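Quick one from the shared queue. A colleague (R.T.) flagged Sec-independent protein translocase protein TatC as missing a structural entry in our internal table.

Convert sequence to structure tokens.
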Amino acid sequence: MSKILDAIRGKAKSMEGEMSFFDHLEVLRWHLIRAAVAVIVFGGLAFYFFDDIWQKIIMGPKTPSFATYRFMCYMGQLLHSDGMCITSIPGKLQSNEMAGQFSLQINAALILGITCGFPYLLWEIWSFVKPALLEKERKAASGFVFFASALFFLGILFGYFVVAPLSIHFLTNYQISPDIENIFTIDSYVTSVATLTLVSGVVFQLPIVIFVLATIGIITDKFMREKRRYAIIIILIVAMLVTPTPDVTTMLVISMPLFVLYEISIIVAKRVVNKKKQTELEFFGKA
């Protein structure tokens, strides 16, 4: 994986004798076209089965019988904490535009298409970079698509089953005055669910981002350990904002995966730094 950045920077130079700049653009164009086709195919399937997707997936966090809320009630019974049990999600949803619901279905299907097609998009990027790598480099970087995709979908699951439902419960119950009735547009609801879910998927790419930054020497495991206290504070603030109650247990449920993710990133940075030191020692040893 550590060779991916060098391959991207040196793509044009390494194949300059064989392909022109415009040839590279043509190859890249076809990779992007195939990725776009995959997104359209997944989006078309989502559009076709939208009724089930709408009721069971998109509207899930708005339903008190959602798996997350039932699990929280179960945990509340075990811990004798009534505040953890969520039995209602107030607020009405409405569409204010004539083509609002049709546009909503298209946009939601497109978002689902991008989400489902993410691994194939990564594969097309890898296929574009792969010819510039040596056989040894290809083997070293072969896990990029798998790990990035796995982290992305883990983040999606965390965002959908943890961040999104708790945030929706907090926002729909928040009132500055009982005289104000909460009526939300359907676009606002879908955008909130999609944003919270996709952002979580992106956040779970932190180990990949740290790997890249450590590879080019911008960040080290030592720096991350020194700034751990600040990271903990930020994570706790985020967990506090999306937690529906001031219950410490619920806040820890939100923050624990983020703590683990940060520690994994430290391990990744340490391995990269150690590998770079070993390579330097071998180079000077031969010299």
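DSSP finds 14 helices and two strands in the chain.
The first helix runs from residue 4 to 9.
Added to the table.
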